[in-house]
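Please check this record.
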Amino acid sequence: MRFRRVLLKLSGEALMGAQGYGIDPAFLEGLAQELAAIRTMGVQLALVVGGGNIFRGMAGAAKGMDRVSGDQMGMLATVINALALRDALERAGAPAVVQSALAMPQVAEGFSQRQALVHLEHGRVVIFAAGTGNPYFTTDTAASLRAAEIQADVLIKATKVDGVYEADPKRYPEAKRFDTLTYSEVLARNLGVMDLTAITLCREQRIPVLVFSMMERGTLAAAMRGEPLGTLIEEA
């Protein structure tokens, strides 16, 4: 396998599947089975999941809600998704644990870098929830931070789009998809792959970022084998 330890950033919207809101049970089950299979290949797997399928803090702030309150609600949405992922993974035969950046001991462990590494070494999937625990920081930033803390070989950002394009492919069907990019090119072109803090942290820590679609089964395993797909962002 090309990567031994992986941080997978999964958008909340991806969990909607074909639905317009919430969690699609069929998609969740299929995803859990794929992740469980990858674990059996010897890959140490950690996840950061967003909460946009339930609530997005910035959207709430745009409608007049206090930004801090909105972001806190968004963090709680990520915990709901993380618990759903843990349940699905365990039903698929993969032991999993949720670590939350917000204290809620009845439902999740508190975040601990040392304990997360222990879980990974023992073959457990670690799901990081509640972002960084602070408002004004995105789950992309949380993913970059956790990837650095667990010394991940790669940060994989799974979306509904099969890579990074020069423009929104939904609005501009002729837009070009990049096979490779450098961190500097992402920042200079303002491509919006991840927020400024997230991509800068990956550049400083030299963590490659692989962006591709998770809507088709088998793509994640293909990425683990090093097959070319999506867009790879790394230093030239």
In short: The first helix runs from residue 25 to 39.
